[in-house]
C-alpha cells in the first residue's frame, strides 16, 4: 500500500491563513508583531532560508526586518546588536540564523537573546521550560512536526517514537515535545548499534540525521509514520534523509522533502512571533 503523503506546505498555507486573520485582529488593537532576522555572512543556503522567512512574514501581514552583517563581524559587535534588539520595544522576535562564522560562539549568542523574544526556542531558559512541561516558545521544527502529526490525525499518546539524530535544534527537543504528548521516545544517533532494530520497531520514525537517503523501505515495517527532517543538497537539489520512493511503499504516512517539514518550520516561527507580541502586550 502506498503511503499517504503529508504535505507540510499545504498545512502551512492553511495555518498561515489563520494567522493572517490573527495579525489583522492584533493590528486593530495596535499590536504589530515584528520579527528581526539577523544573518552573518553570505552562505547561499542560509540566505535562501531567511528570504523564505521574510516572504512568509510579509504574506501574513507581519512586519519582518532582515539585518545582513558581513562575514567578519565580531562576536562583540553581534552581541551589541542583540542587546539593542532586546531593548527595542517594537521588536517582538529575534532570530539569529545558524550556523555562525567560527569567530562567534553560537551558545554565547543564543544566551544573549532575551528569552521572551527567543522565537527559535533555543535559549536554555526556554529549553528548560520545555523540559519541565511549561508553556514557552517551542523550537520551530519540532513544534512543526507535532502540529503536522496532529493535523494529519495521527495519535501520539502511547506510540513508540524513534528519533534518529540528537541535535539541540531538532532531535533532542522533538523527543521532549513528543514525550510531553505521552509518546514513548527512543533516541538513536550515529553511534547507535544495530540501528535497524530500532527503526523497525517505530510507530513514528523521525529522521533528522543530515545524511541523504540513509533510511529506506527496508529499514521500516509496514504502517510506520515517517517524518523526514533532512535538508541535504545533492547535485543542487534539496533531498531528505529518507529514500522516499522505497519508504513510501511501506509507510502509512510520509513527509516529502521539499514541501514537508520545512514550510512548517517557518510557520511555527511566525506563530512564535505572534505569541511573543501578545505576551509583551499582556505585561
Ligand atoms: N536560527 C535558526 N533557526 C532556524 O530555524 C534555522 C536556522 N537557524 N538555520 C538553518 C535551519 C534550516 N531551516 C529551514 C527552514 C525552512 C526550510 C524550508 O522551508 N524548506 C523548503 C524549501 C526551501 C528550498 O527549496 O530551498 C521545503 O522544504 O519545502 C528549510 C530549512 C531553518 N533553520
From TrEMBL:
Instruction: Please give the Gene3D superfamilies that the UniProt record associates with this protein.
Output: Leucine Dehydrogenase, chain A, domain 1, NAD(P)-binding Rossmann-like Domain
Q: Where are the transmembrane segments?
A: none
**Keywords on this record?**
Amino-acid biosynthesis, Histidine biosynthesis, Hydrolase, Methionine biosynthesis, Multifunctional enzyme, NADP, One-carbon metabolism, Oxidoreductase, Purine biosynthesis
**Pathway field:** One-carbon metabolism; tetrahydrofolate interconversion
Record carries keyword Iron: no
EC number(s): the record gives 1.5.1.5, 3.5.4.9
Record's catalysed reaction(s): (6R)-5,10-methenyltetrahydrofolate + H2O = (6R)-10-formyltetrahydrofolate + H(+); (6R)-5,10-methylene-5,6,7,8-tetrahydrofolate + NADP(+) = (6R)-5,10-methenyltetrahydrofolate + NADPH
Q: Does the keyword Hydrolase apply?
A: yes
The Tetrahydrofolate dehydrogenase/cyclohydrolase NAD(P)-binding domain is annotated at 139-278
- Domain of life, per lineage: Bacteria
Q: Where is the Tetrahydrofolate dehydrogenase/cyclohydrolase catalytic domain?
A: 6-120
| SUPFAM superfamilies cross-referenced by the UniProt entry | Aminoacid dehydrogenase-like, N-terminal domain (SSF53223), NAD(P)-binding Rossmann-fold domains (SSF51735)
Entry's PANTHER family? Answer: C-1-TETRAHYDROFOLATE SYNTHASE, CYTOPLASMIC, C-1-TETRAHYDROFOLATE SYNTHASE, CYTOPLASMIC-RELATED
Oligomeric state and interaction partners are given as: Homodimer.
Concerning its family, UniProt says: Belongs to the tetrahydrofolate dehydrogenase/cyclohydrolase family.
Protein name per Swiss-Prot or TrEMBL: Bifunctional protein FolD
Native species? Halobacillus seohaensis
As recorded in Swiss-Prot or TrEMBL, the protein's gene is named: folD
Amino acid at each position: 500500500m502506498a503511503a499517504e503523503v503529508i504535505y507540510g506546505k499545504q498545512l502551512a498555507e492553511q495555518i498561515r491563513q489563520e494567522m493572517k486573520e490573527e495579525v489583522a485582529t492584533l493590528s486593530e488593537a495596535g499590536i504589530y508583531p515584528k520579527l528581526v532576522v539577523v544573518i552573518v555572512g553570505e552562505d547561499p543556503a542560509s540566505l535562501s532560508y531567511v528570504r523564505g522567512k521574510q516572504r512568509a512574514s510579509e504574506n501574513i501581514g507581519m512586519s519582518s526586518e532582515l539585518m545582513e552583517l558581513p562575514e567578519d563581524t565580531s562576536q562583540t559587535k553581534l552581541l551589541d546588536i542583540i542587546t539593542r534588539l532586546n531593548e527595542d520595544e517594537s521588536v517582538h522576535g529575534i532570530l539569529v540564523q545558524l550556523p555562525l562564522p567560527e569567530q562567534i560562539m553560537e551558545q554565547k549568542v543564543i544566551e544573549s537573546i532575551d528569552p521572551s523574544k527567543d522565537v527559535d526556542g533555543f535559549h536554555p531558559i526556554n529549553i528548560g521550560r520545555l523540559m519541565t512541561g511549561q508553556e514557552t516558545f517551542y523550537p520551530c521544527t519540532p513544534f512543526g512536526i507535532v502540529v503536522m502529526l496532529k493535523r494529519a490525525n495521527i495519535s501520539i499518546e502511547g506510540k513508540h517514537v524513534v528519533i534518529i539524530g540528537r541535535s539541540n535544534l531538532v532531535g533532542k527537543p522533538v523527543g521532549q515535545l513528543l514525550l510531553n504528548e505521552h509518546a514513548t521516545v527512543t533516541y538513536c544517533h550515529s553511534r547507535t548499534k544495530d540501528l535497524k532494530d530500532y527503526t523497525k520497531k517505530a510507530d513514528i520514525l523521525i529522521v533528522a540525521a543530515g545524511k541523504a537517503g540513509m533510511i529506506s523501505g527496508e529499514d521500516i515495517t509496514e504502517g510506520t509514520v515517517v517524518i523526514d527532517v533532512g535538508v541535504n543538497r545533492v547535485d543542487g537539489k534539496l533531498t531528505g534523509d529518507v529514500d522516499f520512493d522505497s519508504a513510501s511503499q511501506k509507510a502509512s504516512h510520509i513527509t516529502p522533502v521539499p514541501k514537508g517539514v520545512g514550510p512548517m518550520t517557518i510557520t511555527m516561527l511566525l506563530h512564535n512571533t505572534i505569541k511573543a507580541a501578545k505576551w509583551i502586550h499582556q505585561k
